[in-house]
């Protein structure tokens, strides 16, 4: 289980790095646009990502047995 968490973290880092590596200008514009959003919108977006991650983790852990 411990190595699975590290592998998941490594995959997150790879996926997070693809945007700035492949599309730096678009990534910079997206970040600039995010800074203009109200705090509540960012909180909801972040909360949605957390919930989606927990659901995916739960589904994968149940499928793995």
TrEMBL record:
- InterPro entries documented for this protein: DUF2065
Coiled coil where? Answer: none
Residues of the signal sequence? Answer: none
Task: Please give the superkingdom of this protein's source.
Answer: Bacteria
Q: Which UniProt keywords apply?
A: Membrane, Transmembrane, Transmembrane helix
For this UniProt entry, which segments traverse the membrane?
6-23, 44-60
Q: Which PANTHER family is this protein grouped with?
A: INNER MEMBRANE PROTEIN, INNER MEMBRANE PROTEIN-RELATED
Q: What is this protein called?
A: DUF2065 domain-containing protein
Organism from which the protein derives: Buttiauxella izardii
């Amino acid at each position: 289980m411990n190595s699975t968490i590290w592998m998941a973290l490594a995959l997150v880092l790879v996926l997070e790095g693809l945007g700035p590596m492949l599309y730096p200008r678009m990534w910079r514009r997206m970040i600039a646009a995010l800074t203009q959003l109200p705090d509540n919108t960012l909180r909801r977006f972040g909360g949605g990502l957390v919930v989606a991650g927990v659901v995916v983790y739960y589904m994968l852990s149940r499928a793995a047995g």
